[in-house]
Design a protein that fits this description.
Number of helices: 14
Largest sheet: 5 strands, mixed
Structural class: alpha+beta
Order of helices and strands: HEEEEHHEHEEHHEEHHHHHHHEEEH
Distance between the termini: 13 Å
Radius of gyration: 21 Å
Number of strands: 12
Number of domains: 1
Helix content: 40-55%
Strand content: 5-15%
Length: about 400
């Protein structure tokens, strides 16, 4: 008998809690033992801030839909991790991509992202150069948590956290500036050199969200300035409509979440017309690219109640397969060393992989030898879509 969507969600939650939760933050891609460390801290940390924020939003949806105490507990843990991403940098307003406990570099720091962006701070190591993607996760998670879960004390703390981050960004001309005083590689939302329409949409969303959380009118003034002086609302309506270069699939994720914020918080009919255009563009564009993440459908339907649920949405949900990744049968050159099966747990078939790394990088003997490493991805998109669907009433509990 096939698993229900709820059963899949519960299995994914268990896997995520066991191997992808590290001091509250969500590790998107972990290297499994024996090559990875037993605490699952070895891996690609560049998307930890994004994944943690999205998971915080996921658990906020879950709590609002079910009032399950476990959902509130996990949401609070993720919110504390977002705060730690800021505190570990020891610089007000700066936040890390991810962090881990350690004293000195490990091999995975050389294999993923930019090795020079790792920093030591006491007993922690943290990865810098956060991007607008990282900020989307941070703000979306905080916004949903404040609206659906947080008590008065938690809201005050989150308001302080958001104010530190967004004040630094506003003071730096709508740019994410790292601890070295330089703008991060993908941290530009400035009207002076706006590289993507999507960044205008994100800037407006983050400023509107910051005002909603902190109640500080300075964010509302900056929001209105970008609209009145630079036409950011018009640029936002064209997000992800460029043809050269075309938007990536991930760009639709980075538009839908900020749009949800804007459509929830904005009340001006004139501005809402542009934001609805942006929503229409994301919905059409994602479907044209055969991206059927159910969250897109739920977001679209939340603001267009008469819109149907696309059959591709249901197919996307039901086709999600939680099954064993059979890496032992994969084809590989004979010169590579096969990793022993580390355990018998099931892993998400869609997101796991085997990659080969030089033995010398791993600190193993053999100058020319390549060693196979098993990596497991986190099932964050299915969980986000499932619990958002429950929250919006699109997925019945028995499904």
């Amino acid at each position: 008998m096939p698993m229900t969507l709820y059963e899949k969600a519960m299995l994914c939650e268990a896997m995520l809690e066991e191997r992808h939760t590290y001091e509250g933050q969500i590790r998107a891609l972990v290297v499994l033992p024996p090559i990875g460390l037993p605490d699952y801290s070895t891996g690609n940390h560049e998307s930890d801030a994004l994944s943690t924020g999205m998971y915080l939003a996921t658990q906020a949806f879950r709590w609002a839909a079910t009032k399950d105490p476990k959902a509130k507990e996990r949401a609070r843990t993720a919110a504390r991790a977002l705060r730690m991403l800021q505190r570990v940098t020891r610089t007000d307003g700066c936040f890390a991509r991810g962090f881990k406990r350690g004293n000195g570099a490990t091999w995975d720091e050389q294999a993923f992202f930019f090795p020079r962006e790792w920093h030591q701070a006491g007993e922690y190591r943290w990865l810098g150069d956060p991007s607008t993607d990282s900020l989307v996760g941070l703000m979306f998670g905080y916004e949903l948590y404040c609206d659906l879960v947080a008590d008065a004390k938690e809201k005050r703390q989150i308001a302080k956290d958001v104010d530190l981050v967004m004040r630094r960004i506003v003071d730096q001309g709508m740019r994410i500036v790292d601890v070295d005083g330089r703008m991060t590689l993908w941290g530009n939302m400035s009207p002076l050199v706006l590289e993507e329409n999507l960044n205008a949409l994100q800037a407006l969303s983050h400023l509107r969200g910051a005002y909603h959380i902190t109640k500080k009118r300075g964010y509302l003034r900056e929001y209105r300035r970008l609209i009145q002086e630079w036409g950011y609302h018009k640029i936002a309506a064209r997000a992800n409509t460029e043809t050269n270069p075309e938007p990536s699939e991930w760009d639709y994720n980075l538009a839908m979440c900020p749009l949800y914020t804007l459509l929830c918080y904005e009340t001006d009919p004139g501005l809402l017309r542009y934001y609805y255009r942006a929503l229409q563009a994301q919905w059409r564009g994602s479907r044209a690219r055969h991206m059927h993440d159910a969250l897109f459908n739920w977001t679209y339907k939340a603001f267009h109640p008469r819109a149907p649920i696309a059959k591709e949405t249901w197919e996307w949900l039901h086709s999600f397969e939680v099954s064993d990744f059979d890496y032992t049968l994969a084809r590989r050159p004979a010169t590579r060393e096969r990793a022993k099966r580390p355990y018998l747990h099931e892993v998400p078939k869609y997101s796991s992989s085997v990659q080969a790394f030089p033995a010398s990088l791993l600190g193993l003997p053999g100058k020319e030898r390549m060693v196979e490493v098993v990596l497991e991805g986190v099932p964050r998109y299915f969980l986000r879509a499932y619990w958002a669907g429950r929250y919006f009433g699109c997925i019945p509990p028995e499904a």
